[in-house]
Amino acid sequence: MPTDLSYSLWSSLLPGIALWALALYLPLSVPISRFEESLAEGPLTANTQQIVLVIASLALALAVGVVVELLLCWALGPGWSSSLGLMAVLSGLFWSVASRQSKDKD
C-alpha cells in the first residue's frame, strides 16, 4: 500500500513540477551557458555536446522544479503551489512578448 500512496502523491505534484521547471528554465540559462562553454573546451564532438547539454539543462530545470514545488507545497499547499507555477509561466510569457514588442518599436 505505501507504493500506491507515494505514486498518488507524486502524480498529484507532477503538473506543478512541470510548471515550475518551465517557469525557471530561462533563469537557469546562466549556469547552463557556463556549462556549455566548458563543454566546448572538452574532447566531445559537437553532436555529443548538444545531447549532454540538452539532458543537463532538462535535468537541472526538473530538479529545481521539484525543489520549488515541494517547498511551496509544504508552505502553501499543493493547489496553491501549482497555481503559482502557472502564474510564473504566464508572467514569463507576458514579459517575453512585451520585450519583443518594445525591441520591434526601437
List keywords for this structure.
mainly alpha; 4 helices
The number of E-state strands comes to 0
Q: Residue share in helices?
A: over 70%
Strand percentage lies at under 5%
Structural class, please? Answer: mainly alpha
Number of structural units classed as domains: 1
Write the H/E string, N to C.
HHHH
What is the radius of gyration?
17 Å
Mean pLDDT: 77
Low-confidence stretches: none
Helix count from the secondary structure assignment:
4
What does this structure look like?
It contains four helices and no strands. The protein has helices spanning 2-23, 29-40, 46-75, 78-105. α1 (2-23) crosses α3 (46-75), α2 packs antiparallel against α3 (46-75) and α3 crosses α4. The chain starts with a helix and ends with a helix. It has 106 residues and is mostly helical. The mean pLDDT is 77. Helices cover 87% and strands 0% of the residues. The chain has one domain.
